[in-house]
Write a structure and sequence with these properties.
The chain is built from 28 helices and eleven strands. With about 600 residues, the chain is of the alpha/beta class. Among the domains are: about 205-315, Tetratricopeptide repeat domain (Serine Threonine Protein Phosphatase 5, Tetratricopeptide repeat, Alpha Horseshoe); about 315-410, Rossmann fold (3-Layer(aba) Sandwich); about 420-595, Glycogen Phosphorylase B (Rossmann fold, 3-Layer(aba) Sandwich). A seven-stranded mixed sheet has the order 7-6-5-8-9-11-10, sandwiched between helices. Strands 3-2-1-4 form a four-stranded parallel sheet. α27 (about 525-535) links the parallel β8 and β9. α8 (about 125-135) runs antiparallel to α9 (about 140-155). It is elongated and about 105 Å long. The relative contact order is 0.05.
C-alpha cells in the first residue's frame, strides 16, 4: 500500500468521508504490522476511529501511542477528547491538564478542557478554560461561541450576543454563532431577525439539524405550520434521535389539528428523553385537546416541572388532595396561571364543598370579590396574603383530575358566578336604551402580551386581532358596542365604542357590566371565561391553533353552554371569521329590533 498525502487525509477527516477513512485505516494497519511502535500511525488510527464514532477504539490506539511518546501534548489532548466522548470526564480533565502542563500555550487543549467542563455543567471552570484559550488565540471562534452559549444560558443576552459577533468576525463562515444569534433574537421577541440568522446558518451548512429545528420553531410561531413541520422532518432525517425536534414537530402537528400524529411525536420524544417535563406537558395538552381526559389530566401534573411553571410551584407540607373522602377537613384550593384558568376551574370549588370539605380559595387579588359568590366556599383570600390553617391543598387545575372529569361529566351548570344586586342595577340604569331594541355587544380583541415568555408572546400574537379588522362589525345597524378591552392596542378613533372599563377596578366590577350586555364577542381571553361563567352569550373568535380546552372542530364548548366558537379556517385568517360573525350579528340585531 502506498502512503497517503496528508492533505488527502485532512480532506477526508473534514468531510467525514467514511469510504476514504476506512481505506486509510487499512493503510495504517498494514504499516503497524511491520512498525507496531510507530507513534504517528498509532495516533492516526485513534484519530480515524474517533472520526468514525468509535471512541473506545480511538482511546485504545492513542493510549498505545502515549506509551511510545508520553511527553506529547497533542497525544494527551486527543486522548482526553476520546475520554470526554466516553463520558469519563474526570479522567479527561486529568489528560487535558497534562497536555497543558506539557505545552501551556496549547490553545486547543484549553478550549477542549472548557468543553469538558461545560458538558459537566461546571460553567465557572469552563469560562476560565475558554478565557485561557482566548488569551493565547483571541480569534478562536469556537471558544468565543461557547462562552456566548454559557452567558445566554445565564440570561446575559447582551454579553452573549457580543461573543457571538466576535466569533463571526473571527470566522465569517461559522454557522453556529449565526444559529445562536437567532436564538437570542427569538428570546427577545424579534422573530424576523431570528429567522434571518437561522437561514444564514443554513446557507453555510444546509445539513445543520439545530438550525433547521430553530427555524421551524420561528415559522411555527409565525403561523406557518406546514413549513415548520417540513423543517422538523428534515432535522430528524439528519438526527433521528433528536428529542427537541420531535417535541417541536408535535407542537406544529398539534397546531395543525393533527392530534394523533402530534401525540405520537411527543411519545417518541419522551422515549428518548423521558425526564424532560415540557415534553410530558405538551403531550398532556394534546391528549386533553383530543378529549382523552383520563390520560390527559394525569399527564398534566407534569406542568409543575415545566419551563413555564416550575418557579411558581408551591412546596406544601400538607398533603395534596386527590379526590379522596375528607369530610370536615379544610381544603385550600390555589389558583394558578392566568385569570381565565381561575375563572374556568373555580367551578370545582362548590363540588368540593358538596363533599363536605371546608373550602378556602386563594386567587389573584382582582378576582377575590367575584369569587366570593361561589356557593359553599368559606373563605376567599388574595394571593400573597397569609394563609389560614388547612389540612389539604389542591392546585386549581388539578381539580378536574381529582374529580375524575371526563367529557361527559364536565360540570357545566351555569351560572356558577354571580353579581351583587347593587352594582348590577347601577349598570342596568346606565346602559338602558330608549326603546329596548338596541343590541348591546361587548368587544375584546387582544389578550395579555405575557412578556416573560417568548412562546406565550407568539401565541398571543396569533390569538389577538388588530382592532381595525373589526370595522365591518361596527357598521351593522341596531347595535351599540362597548369596549371591554383592558390594555392592548386602542381602537381607532372613528370606532363609536362606549368605554367604561376605567370604572372597572376588578372582575366583580367587570362582571356587573358584562351582566347587563346582550352578547360578548372576544378573542380567547379571560373575558370569554368570565362571560361563560356568568351564563352570558359569548362568541369566541378562535385562532386556528386553538387552545386545548376548546377541543377540536367544535363550534360549542362543553365547559360553557352559552359559548360559540368561530375558528379561523386557516392560520391568520381573521377576515373570514369576522365575515361569518358579521352575518350572525346582523340576524341578532334584526331579531332584537323586532322584539
Amino acid at each position: 500500500m502506498q502512503p497517503f498525502p496528508p492533505s488527502t487525509l485532512a480532506q477526508a477527516l473534514a468531510s467525514n468521508n467514511i469510504e476514504q477513512l476506512n481505506e486509510f485505516k487499512k493503510i495504517c494497519r498494514a504499516t503497524l504490522k511491520t512498525k507496531p511502535d510507530n507513534a504517528a500511525f498509532l495516533h492516526l488510527m485513534g484519530i480515524i476511529e474517533h472520526q468514525l464514532g468509535h471512541a473506545a477504539l480511538a482511546a485504545k490506539w492513542i493510549k498505545k501511542a502515549l506509551v511510545v511518546m508520553p511527553d506529547s501534548a497533542e497525544l494527551h489532548c486527543n486522548y482526553a477528547k476520546t475520554l470526554a466522548v466516553l463520558k469519563k470526564h474526570a479522567e479527561a480533565v486529568i489528560a487535558f491538564r497534562r497536555a497543558i502542563l506539557l505545552n501551556p500555550d496549547y490553545a486547543e487543549a484549553h478550549y477542549s478542557l472548557g468543553n469538558c467542563f461545560k458538558e459537566c455543567g461546571d460553567d465557572t471552570n469552563a469560562i476560565e478554560a475558554y478565557n485561557n484559550a482566548l488569551a493565547i488565540n483571541p480569534n478562536l471562534a469556537e471558544a468565543l461561541n461557547n462562552l456566548g452559549v454559557i452567558l445566554k444560558n445565564k440570561g446575559a443576552l447582551a454579553e452573549a450576543t457580543n461573543y457571538y459577533m466576535r466569533a463571526l468576525a473571527a470566522k465569517p463562515d461559522y454557522p453556529m454563532p449565526l444559529n445562536n444569534l437567532g436564538v437570542i433574537c427569538f428570546l427577545l421577541g424579534n422573530l424576523d431577525a431570528a429567522a434571518a440568522h437561522h437561514r444564514q446558518a443554513l446557507a453555510l451548512k444546509p445539513d445543520y439539524p439545530d438550525a433547521l429545528n430553530n427555524l421551524g420553531m420561528i415559522l411555527r410561531h409565525q403561523g406557518d405550520f406546514a413549513e415548520s413541520i417540513n423543517l422538523y422532518r428534515k432535522a430528524l432525517a439528519l438526527r433521528p434521535n433528536y428529542p427537541e425536534a420531535l417535541n417541536n414537530l408535535g407542537n406544529a402537528l398539534k397546531d395543525s389539528g393533527k392530534l394523533p400524529e402530534a401525540i405520537l411525536a411527543y411519545q417518541q420524544a419522551i422515549a428518548i428523553k423521558g425526564d424532560y417535563p415540557d415534553f410530558h406537558n405538551n403531550l398532556a395538552m394534546a391528549l386533553l385537546a383530543a378529549g382523552r381526559f383520563a390520560e390527559g389530566w394525569r399527564k398534566y401534573e407534569w406542568r409543575w416541572k415545566s419551563t413555564q411553571l416550575a418557579a411558581a410551584r408551591h412546596n406544601m407540607a400538607e398533603p395534596l388532595w386527590q379526590g379522596e373522602a375528607a369530610e370536615g377537613r379544610v381544603l385550600l384550593i390555589r389558583s394558578e396561571q392566568g385569570f381565565g384558568d381561575t375563572l374556568q376551574f373555580c367551578r370545582y370549588a362548590p363540588k368540593a364543598a358538596a363533599r363536605g370539605l371546608r373550602v378556602v380559595l386563594e386567587v389573584q387579588p382582582a378576582l377575590v370579590r367575584l369569587m366570593g359568590s361561589l356557593f359553599g366556599v368559606e373563605q376567599v383570600i388574595a394571593q400573597g396574603q397569609p394563609l389560614p390553617d388547612f389540612d389539604l391543598y389542591c392546585p386549581m387545575m388539578s381539580l378536574p383530575a381529582a374529580f375524575n372529569t371526563r367529557l361527559e361529566t364536565i360540570p357545566a351548570d351555569i351560572p356558577y358566578l354571580a353579581v351583587q344586586d347593587d352594582p348590577l342595577n347601577s349598570w342596568r340604569s346606565r346602559l338602558a336604551d330608549c326603546n329596548g331594541k338596541t343590541l348591546k355587544v361587548g368587544l375584546v380583541w387582544a389578550g395579555s402580551s405575557r412578556a416573560h415568555s417568548p412562546d406565550l408572546i407568539a401565541t398571543d400574537r396569533r390569538r389577538s386581532i388588530a382592532p381595525e379588522l373589526l370595522a365591518p362589525l361596527l357598521d351593522i345597524a341596531g347595535i351599540q358596542f362597548y369596549n371591554l378591552q383592558k390594555g392592548g392596542p386602542p381602537p381607532p378613533e372613528e370606532f363609536c365604542l362606549i368605554d367604561l372599563m376605567a370604572e372597572c377596578n376588578d372582575f366583580a366590577d367587570t362582571a356587573a357590566l358584562v351582566a347587563n350586555l346582550d352578547l360578548i364577542i372576544s378573542v380567547d381571553t379571560a373575558m370569554a371565561h368570565l362571560a361563560g361563567a356568568l351564563g352570558k352569550p359569548i362568541w369566541v373568535l378562535n385562532r386556528f391553533d386553538s387552545c386545548w380546552r376548546w377541543l377540536q372542530t367544535r363550534e360549542d364548548s362543553p365547559w360553557y353552554p352559552t359559548l360559540r366558537l368561530f375558528r379561523q379556517p386557516r392560520s391568520g385568517d381573521w377576515e373570514s371569521v369576522i365575515s361569518i360573525v358579521g352575518d350572525e350579528l346582523r340576524q341578532l340585531a334584526v331579531a332584537k329590533s323586532e322584539e
